[in-house]
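Per your request, structure below.
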């Protein structure tokens, strides 16, 4: 079943009725409704799939569990090439409107979503939050891709060449420094 995601939901009604939402957010829709996600990635490559179940538990927590899946393109900070990353977030979020409810929800190990009294939720914003949290702080290819997809183009010199270069370089640098340190050398340059 693939239904369009509602733009506003009353979490009380949804959790009372045990509503399930299943479907996907099209590229076109996420383009306008998830601006923060689109700013954070180079490209969002397709539909964002979601499965969300609203319910209440025995303690009276009103919560939503489920999954959101997306595929984004990021720039690897190791090789600077673009790569595709699958985001797969498991959700377990309690809706709270008081500190008491928050404390209880935290004790039950839910993530917390605070909202004002009578406030309606745009589930797209909520899913966007979760996807943003799932993005790596420093985007990089997997370790296993180093030398394959993640190819850092560095030419390694032979160790002997390096040592030889080092020697001659340090001499010439010293010489240059002496020249500029010498006031007569500067005078000579001025006269030219
Ligand atoms: Zn890379």
């Amino acid at each position: 079943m693939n239904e369009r995601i509602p733009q506003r939901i009353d979490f009380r009604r949804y959790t009372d009725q045990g509503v399930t939402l299943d479907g996907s957010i099209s590229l076109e829709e996420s383009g306008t409704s998830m601006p923060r996600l689109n700013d954070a990635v180079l490209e969002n490559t397709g539909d964002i799939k979601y499965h969300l179940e609203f319910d209440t538990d025995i303690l009276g927590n009103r919560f939503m569990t489920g999954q959101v899946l997306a595929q984004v393109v990021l720039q690897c900070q190791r090789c600077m090439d673009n790569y595709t990353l699958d985001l797969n977030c498991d959700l377990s979020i309690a809706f709270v409107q008081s500190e008491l409810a928050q404390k209880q929800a935290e004790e039950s190990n839910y993530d917390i979503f605070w909202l004002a009294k009578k406030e309606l939720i745009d589930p797209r914003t909520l899913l966007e939050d979760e996807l943003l949290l799932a993005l790596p702080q420093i985007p990089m290819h997997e370790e296993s891709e180093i030398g394959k997809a993640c190819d850092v183009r560095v030419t390694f010199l032979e160790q002997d060449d390096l040592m030889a270069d080092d020697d001659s370089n340090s001499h010439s640098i010293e010489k240059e420094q002496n020249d500029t340190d010498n006031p007569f050398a500067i005078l000579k340059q001025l006269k030219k």
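The chain has seven helices and six strands.

Regards,
D.
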